[in-house]
Fold this sequence. Notes:
Strand content: under 5%
Largest sheet: none
Number of helices: 40
Radius of gyration: 36 Å
Shape: globular
Amino acid sequence: MASKARRRAAWLAFGLVALAAFSASANPGDAQPTQGIRASTAQLSTPDSASHGAQQTTTSPHDIQPDVDHTTEGSVRGQASLDNIDFPIPATRAFRSAIFTLHNLTNYSQQYTHDPFSQQSASQQSSFLSSLLPTAQGKGPIGSAIRISQKLYHRIFSSGKFATSRKKDEEIQRKAIKVIDLLQLSAELGNMDALFTLAHLSLFPPNIYFPLDPKTAYSSFAMHASITGNATSQSYLAFFHSTGYADVVPIDQTKALLCYTFAAQGGDKGAQMALGYRYWSGISTLEDCSRAAAWYEEAADQAMQKFLSGPPGGLTLPYTPTSLSDLDGGVYGPGASVASTGFNVIRPAVKAGFARAAGETWEDLLEYYMFNADRGETDFAYKLGKIFYQGSIYAAAGGTASGSEGVGRIAQDFKQAQYYFLQIARQVWPRDPPNPLHHKASAYKAEAVTQPGWAPKSAAYIGRMYMRGEGVKQDYETAMMWFERGAEYADRECHNGLGIIWRDGLVKGKKDIRKALEHFAIAAGQELAEAHVNLGKHYYARGEFKLAATYFETAIRFGSTFEAHFYLAKIHTMNMRASGLPQDYAAGSCSSAVSFYKLAAERGVWDDDLVNDAEQAWNSGTERGKEIAILKWWVAAERGFEVAQNNLAYVLDQDKSMLRSTRFSPIQVSNDTARLALTQWIRSAAQRNVDSLVKVGDYYYHGFGVPDEPESVRWEKAAKFYQSAADTQLSALAMWNLGWMYENGIGVPQDFHLAKRHYDQALEINSEAYLPVLLSLIKLHARSLWHTLQGGENGLKLWGYDEDRMSVSERANMKREIDPASRSQPNTETRSHAHEETVDTFDDDGPWYMGKAREDFQRRRQQSTRQVPEEEEDPVQWARERRIAENERDGDFGPEDYFDAALRGGHRGEEGVDTFLETMLLVTLCLVVAALIYIRTRLVQRARREEEQNRGRPPPNLGLFPPPDDPARQDWQIVR
């Protein structure tokens, strides 16, 4: 009886466990539909949270953030809570039903991603059955086999299985009509939330089943703004008036400025950024730096408040935006564009574009990484864990806290990241103690570990995940354990994590600022940007702004993209508003403050990341997706996002065809579209985009989107834009264009010397311009010679040293020799001011412009030649080199070039070859060849002597047999 009772208890326990597992794996929205409705309402209340095509079904790499109530009085983005609505019951019921149906509809289509076979997100809870069976996310050979089988199955049978039937399309279409009808009914009955949702759906339809209706969107936003005074509605009304989108209303910049002002006063961050950008650029108003700084400060304060609402260390930064032109090698293609020449060629977007052009995909890259990681390759395992943690192939410079690049985004998976990090860390720390604070005993560490490898870096990520609650339950003591383990091997991220724990008192409420500063100092000594930010924040809170500014500047040099910009902007704002300072000093501080506030506000876009939403919609490849992408880029461009301005101009550019302005041109140039593209090119160029500046010159040269005026006037303006781009000493194309214009006398006086000078400068800036410059110089000399033969003057000299052949450095040296002031002036800029007690660390000489402060920091970064840490190298290039090395090592016939393999086998990673060995090899080869020639000469001489000796002897007596030279000798046969 006892055994039966135990058996029944065991079955009952198993049943309860199974029931709990299946209940946990069920959709929580089914049990509490009201919460699902409220979540959808909150999402729709944020105007730019709806993305075209899908509701997000997996955890975004940067959505780990606490729930924040955005409902405010007079509100900007939030709508009133459904529990406090005083609308009639039918209106509320209709609105709830519409939101519930909409929530189900948006789950039909998948989110836009770069990797269609992405790994399972950490937010997706696995069921009881899936925990027992192998899956595509499993490890080892079984998981790899399942993944390969899935790939083959999808590629063979995807066309038939995933095709949506007509019946299902009709059903979804009827539900979409139902949603619109219910929202219209609820809005007519007085529900303002329904009115706003209807306007938002009409402007940003979530999928193809909802119509894009700008007229309904404008009328609904106008009615909602007039009744409630909602700031978000005012902001979208301003967009319609400023752009004339879809010809709903005529362009009226006065009304746009008025609506933006109302929205910004109400607290809408997008309107504050748009208003700050207009005051800074002088769009429909006078330029006013102080007002621009005030509005950008409001927007940056909102971004910082959102950032601090996250876990320790702040919210994970959103993906960095991507320029479409960078994926194509720049506006003018690889080599000809500034975006893909010089140091810009190592930017992630450019490298990703080259990888895409070579046919490489993130899916194949992850498959290769996982294959090698499952074989026990720790370097692959670490890089794979890092990729899954950051949700991108490329990490942003500056450390873990600086975020990741949007161009390499994949599905983020903390569980996978933790698995690979633990796989490495367990080689050094095989066990964890019951009490994480007592981990220093020898029993919890492997013996005789002299080379920990990737274990300290893996410990840093594990500790960060426990400190922030990413993929695991938040546990500060366990986080401290892993940080201390990595700090034993001087890992910088671990020291920075320990500094955060001691500074904030996360473990048992014990704060120790002295210990925190010690750990921050160690991490800062290893060039970690976040550690410099933490030190700067400490001194900023104490009022030591000069020392804090030094740390923030250093953090920006090392890759910090958010906090350092914000606090530097605050320091410059205090300098700007201080009394008794010179006017020039205040103007420089104001310009710096605007630049830094703008960067911080544009980086902290957790609620309304329009640029990344537009990029995902564009990557869908559908007409509706491209239409929504253009709209969102346009909205972001009005807010001053340079990437959005560049993307919008690039997709609307009609100057790409080589057959332009000919009868073979494939399309008719639309002046309206060209005018919009030119406007965006001009705004992008004003934010220091050199390729955009050259593009503006092209538009004026060809007459695209410009007012009707004589060609000579347009060409003069084009030459001025080319000259502005050439003055940056970055664009070889701008210099070549100027050389061609001087050669032909178009837009500028004809001058062969200036033409040659610009051709030479184009080659000095970009060596890839060798062939076009060579052909241009040949043509220029021929034309100059013909001009001289016809009696012309000022032709080029064919013999002798011409001044035009002088390089840029030679001309600069000659100028210094001629100018006594520049020769006698001492060089006072060589003194180091790294620790000088001064707040003004910027050069205030000359006029200030948008982005000058950032250029100063980039120039300093290029001047400080520091070695890039090994973990920040390109994952794609690293995997490509490893694959080539393995193929050469494991191939049946070895490397294709044995001589090359012999030379590089012992010198991998070195910049040059040993010249002594190379010289000895050449000498040996020469000696061997000389010996062979000598031996051949001796053999020939010997053969000649023997022939001469044979000629002097009498011929032998052969009797009747013919001599050797007689042809009859062949007729004789000797019969044995």
